[in-house]
Amino acid sequence: xxxxxxxxxxxxxxxNLVDILTKLINSxxxxxxxxxxxxxxxxxxxxxxxxxxxxxxELGKIIDEIIGAxxxxxxxxxxxxxxxAEFIKQNVGLEYxxxxxxSELKLHE
Length: 109
Hints:
Blueprint: H1 3-40, H2 46-91, H3 94-108
Helix pairs in contact: 1-2
C-alpha cells in the first residue's frame, strides 16, 4: 500500500469518527432535552428521570472517548500537513504558485 493510500485511509477513518461524534452529540443534546421535559412533568417517577440522566452520562463518556481518540490521532494528520506544506514551500517556486492562482482567478471571471 502506498503512503498516499495510507494517508487517505487515515483521513477517511478520522472523517468517519467525526461523523459519528456529530451524531452522538446530537443524540446527547436530545437526551438532555428529554430529561428536562420529563423533569417538568408532575406525574413522572423520580426513577425515570434518574434513568434518563444515567443514559445521558453514559453517552457523554462515549463522546469523551471519541474526542480523546481524535485528539491523539489528529496530531499525526497535522504533522503530515505540516511536512507536506514544508515540502511544497521548498520545492515549488513562489512564482509558480502565483501563476496558478492568477490563472484560476481568470478562469472564474
